[in-house]
Specification:
The protein is mainly α. The chain has two domains: 2-62, Winged helix-like DNA-binding domain superfamily/Winged helix DNA-binding domain (Arc Repressor Mutant, subunit A); 67-204, GntR ligand-binding domain-like (Four Helix Bundle (Hemerythrin (Met), subunit A)). It is 66% helix and 4% strand. The chain contains ten helices and three strands. It has helices at 2-13, 25-32, 36-48, 67-87, 91-109, 116-133, 137-144, 147-158, 165-180, 184-204, and strands at 22-23, 52-55, 59-62. Strands 1-3-2 form a three-stranded antiparallel β-sheet. A hairpin with a 3-residue loop joins β2 (52-55) and β3 (59-62). α6 packs across α8.
């Protein structure tokens, strides 16, 4: 089951499956060379996580990311991240950590075929760094609950060039510079602007399948 779960979840988070697409358990099982049973178990787990919605004898729907979910996600992120950034006890040390992650993002972005999910994971890790630095374990736990949504929205943002990866890395680098200079107020303003831009970019990103219900035509039936 773990192999099927990891495979399907990765493709969901990297945007390889279109929103609204109806996945076939049989097709996935054939692709992985396994029986349908572990695929069905994996889909049940992903349904519990809110990424899929199962339809008996039809398949598993890739749940679209709606405008309301995007808005609520970024509202929650802004409340947590800006508060946490202001609480960082050592801004210069935090800047060092951020610089390393920005370098990782630039490395991914410069690859001949950039790995969208790897970039989205690095993006999420970078933002998590200042939440962790605040030292509030409960706040960090709440933030970690947003992980899959963050990575999925980030993958949508950078798909098809809607948001250049280098632009995101540059915005992160500017926040790190402000922290290194000891200007936490500027870092806060840059973070607020960065999240506002990200919200707008996510809303403008291509929403393949998001508004058309079940996209059954390209997928074989499990009947």
């Amino acid at each position: 089951m773990r192999r099927a779960y990891d495979h399907v979840k990765r493709r969901l988070l990297e945007g390889a499956y279109a929103e609204g697409q109806l996945l076939s358990e049989g097709a996935i099982a054939s692709e992985l060379g396994i029986s349908r049973t572990p695929v069905r178990e994996a889909c049940l787990q992903l349904e519990a996580e809110g990424l899929l919605r199962l339809y008996p004898k039809r398949g598993a729907l890739v749940v679209p990311i709606g405008p309301r979910e995007i808005r609520e996600l970024f509202d929650a992120r802004e409340l947590i991240e800006r508060h946490a950034l202001a609480q960082a006890p050592d801004p210069a040390a935090l800047a060092d950590d951020l610089d390393a992650l920005v370098a990782r993002q630039r490395e991914i972005a410069s690859a001949p075929t950039p790995d969208r999910l790897a970039f989205a994971e690095a993006d999420r890790e970078l933002h998590r760094t200042w939440v962790e630095a605040a030292g509030n374990a409960i706040l960090l736990s709440v933030y970690d609950g947003l992980r899959d949504r963050q990575q999925r929205v980030a993958a949508v943002m950078i798909a098809d060039g809607v948001t250049p990866m280098t632009a995101l890395a540059d915005e992160h680098a500017a926040i790190a510079r402000a922290l290194r200079d000891g200007d936490v107020a500027l870092a806060d303003r840059l973070l607020a602007d960065h999240l506002a831009l990200a919200r707008d970019r996510a809303g403008a990103a291509p929403r393949a399948g998001a508004a058309v219900g079940l996209r059954t035509a390209p997928v074989a039936s499990d009947d």
